[in-house]
UniProtKB/TrEMBL annotation:
Residues 1-21 are annotated as: Disordered. SUPFAM superfamilies: TPR-like. This is CHAT domain-containing protein. It comes from Amycolatopsis decaplanina DSM 44594. Residues 1-18 have a biased composition (Pro residues).
Amino acid sequence: MLVGMPPPRNPPDRPLPPELSATSSHGYNCRCVARHFGLDPAPYGELPACSLSERQYRKLLVDAVKLQDKAKRLAAARDVAGAHRTYGRMREIAQRLDRTDLELAAVSDLATVCYSAGDLRNARQCAEAVLHAFKISTIGIVHFGQYAELRMIEGSREVAERVLISLSTEEGEVTKARELIADQRRRAAFRKAAEPGQFPPELLDTHCADELELRILDARVSIAAGDPAGARDALDEILTALDALADVDAVREQVASLQAMARAERARVRQTGGEDADARADLLRLSAQHEGRPLAAKAGIDLAADRALGGDFPGAVEAIVAARDELATAGLTGDVAEASHALGGLLLMAGEVGQARDQFEHAGRLWTANGDTAGLRRLDVALARCAAATGDWAVAEEHVSRARESARTSGEWPDLLHTDFVAATIGFAHGKDPRAVLDLLLPLTLAAAEYRFEFTAPQARTAWARDVAGPAMELLMALLARLDERRLAAELIERTCAVGAYTGAEERSLDLIGAPPTLDVGPVAEGLPLAALGSVTSSLPLRLAPPPALRWSPSSPMELDPWLRLAAERYHLPRPVAETVETWPAAKPGRETFLLRFADAGHTFLTWRTTEDLDTVHTHPIDFALVGTARQCLDAASPTPHEGENVADAVRRSLSEDAFGGFAGEQRLARVLALNLLPADLIERLRCAAGSGNRPLLRIQPSPSLAGVPWGLLALPDRRADHVLGIDEIGICFDSDERVLDVADVSLLAPAAIPRRPPVADGPPVYLLDPRIPGQSAFGELGSVLGKQDAASPLIRHLDARLAEGPVLPAAGRGLDLVRRTDTDRRLLAELLARPCSRLVFVGHVSRVSDEHGAQTALHLSCSADLPGTATPIGAHRPFTAADLALSEMDTMPARVALIGCASASDFGLAEPFGVLLAAVAAGAGLVAATVWALPTSAAVPGSDPMSELVIAVDTALAGDDPVTELCAWQRSRLARWREKPEPAASPVFWAPLTCLDATDDGKTWVR
């Protein structure tokens, strides 16, 4: 009797293929089929299914399907042991039925279960067995013409291949993984293009859930190929797409599984990139959604590390042990190994080296049993750290060498970078040949620094710089100091400082909901040419451009260039061809220009040189404690509000006798800053240059830790103490009250890699003075900064004089018409800057509206909330951010710009400094006047108007021939008045924060 599948219509017209001769099951009841066609049954083997009745057959088939459903549920709950048992019973039934399709379904699912449990060896065996059986079954199917079964076993092949994709990815076989993914997509396209009814619905991927799984696998491949940045961005998009499918009944369970898979993968990428808070959010969500199941226990292991860092070490250890017990009960040996490894890491951090080693070795035994090569690589790194902690350098180097070789063989760039860094750390601590350590450490530091720019999200770039590139840079700078490699150290500082502008938006648009559309830009008068409104997203469509190729001096290339080529070769980094940018500006004849660049790398490092002698290098490490003291003193005196402090209290604190309200307190601050931040050789050279009769120019690019320093105010010490000074002893280093301003002019130095557009044509000045902000009272936080003005006010008289000289923008009949306007929004700004104009003077509020990156630094214009932009509205008002400028068509500025507002020069205080200050430079401004801290309004000193004095001085200087010289001269006059009569109205708190970012002599008008 023939039972089971329907028989083929025609008997086989060929002898049994040799591939089938050793098999007893060819996909269905082959012996019965042979008898059905009157063939000799002997070659086909005697099978149990031959004796089954149709009723018996159907019952067993139903039982098999039920077992598969049960096993899938157990696997989803990560009950590995239960899933194994259930799939075993399913396989027994499949063999009784002579149903290869059921057998392959069970074994392919088992491959997935084994992989999820960390049993990589058995996962591979199952997956490869499925693919081997698929080939044999295909031959049998063709022989008997039973093509329906081919469609039934197709899904098992897809599942097995996805396991092999994951295994290939973990072993660094990126090419193989990509080939398998491409094959799956090709077959999926073929199935969708076939006639209706050719394939079962589950193989047609109607809702694209299978494609989203392939995209998750693609993301894993990207990580293995050295592109975690691309993987992170892809995972964000995948999770968004999965959220849209969450309520579709047909794929609800699959989507839930894929969401967990993608979120766990993203948490791993975020941890690698240093985005600890975001990674923790992913893990907490996984833990909450899967409470009581092994997936929650697995997430709890990673969360335990946060508990330990928060000071709850016993609680963290207890949580990991409990999670490990739960995972062991479920049979998840791979996750058990992860738990032991995590526990070992905590114990090593606590100094319990012996116990840590025991935990690492326990993980290693499981990884060995599972055939987990990547896990064994991590074991070697962990044991190397244990050996180094006890001074057993030979064992440490043996382990780390094995880990490095394994990472190199795997081709996984992040692992290679990590193992190389561990090797360099051990070599440095052991006192190994410093040159050998340099050969390892310098390329990996350059590679880590370059890789930061591959991330789209600013938060990810910041985290990568802090937690990956930063530690490598710290160790490298310490090594270069040990080797006395001043030139290499100086070039590293200059390369670190040469950050580029935001780039990557192919179409200038503010449609942040979807892909940026192609815009039909209308006349400027119709408003700023932006796309439809959209609220701010976590990741603007902007990238930070990496530094281009740099040149050290006219006579000397960068010594880093061959190291950069080595880093690109060793870590497979792209090296796009870019124009070479000079790192020095042109110097004015007869005037010595000093170039100072600071970079934070644990300690803060200064490199300085002069345009008269570019090839002589001066580098100085400034101890982080000295920088910390300087910042503490400056923060205590600055009027920028502290956390929880209101503006009025901040101003009162700043104008106290111990801060900027009394000469003694201000002078003490100026001396503390100078002693901590200015090296003796620089001061000596400055005084020497000033003695020639031509005032030198000091141009400074500060690091984030020093962005708020008023450099011109710093006192110049006459000698250095031979011991650590108390605050009351600093006077012994000074014979007079000579300040930097007394001997030099000072300006900020723009990063070398900022691309510059040509400025707009010359024309009338543009004034945006104290714009009225929608929904804000004149006396509120975003109220008036100039206070009540009238026709007799000094600022209004100054504006009237400007109007007498010629037209201004926006058009006005009198000075009062330029102040507190209600129409000075982004639309008017776009219209005004589209015309010829000589300068832009903005006086108002500047703030960072969100996050810790420059893109969300904002001007507060008269913009209503319904205007497009990237900032979340503040009531009825939407701030105008640097991102808005970068994403709009308003990309040209006049040659001179003033941004007079609270800490408008604070770009340099951020890990990504491209805020409104540098955005103006990129848009064509050669010179930008700004302030380094929050400006108190004139209301702080009744009867005086220091804010108007500053605005008048800035506008006058910008209209002159040499704004930097004129503004520094004005500040010297303020300093003289302060010395003569140290009263609040003359306090440096009003005039010292003013600075100019001068890029007029940089000679870099280029567009990336």
